[in-house]
Amino acid sequence: MHPFRTAVEAGDIDAAVGLLADDVVFRSPVVYKPYEGRPAVELILRAVFRVFEDFHYEAEIGAEQAADHVLVFRAHVGEREVHGADFIHTGADGLIDEFTVMVRPMSGMHALAEAMRAQLEPA
Q1: How far apart are CA 45 and CA 26, in angstroms?
Q2: Which of 54, 89, 51 is CA-nearest to residue 74?
Q3: At what angle do helices 38-51 and 106-120 cross, to 10 degrees?
Q4: Using only C-alpha atoms, what is the Rg of the chain?
Q5: Residue 75 exposure: Cα atoms within 13 Å on the Cβ side
Q6: Sign of the CA dihedral running 10, 13, 18, 22
Q7: Tens digit of pLDDT per residue, the chain (123 long)?
Q8: Which of 3, 7, 93, 101 has the smallest number of CB atoms closer than 10 Å to its CB?
């Protein structure tokens, strides 16, 4: 099992963030421009932990020592079900340097975008 999955399933956001490289690049399902750097991605991950309900991984694709893994998940955002996948790449140092999220259906993606906007906009 990938260490990121282990951390997320344990609800340990600090451990999940600790697996990110300083120069990690995060590609969101709702914005074109990627987020770059650990501080930006940490902000996103902490918001996601608050937004997703009933989050669980259903499958993991990738050999144990492989650099690339796909973690397939389901969750709810409000009343909308979201089905998605985290595509993660780890560098030679074992830290995640690329992280891409895909989400479906479109109604779930829109619900996610609205919920994330509410979490990330300044009050």
Answers
A1: 10
A2: 54
A3: 110
A4: 14
A5: 25
A6: positive
A7: 899 999 999 999 999 999 999 999 999 888 888 999 999 999 999 999 999 999 999 999 998 889 999 999 999 998 999 999 999 999 999 999 999 999 999 988 888 888 888 888 765
A8: 93
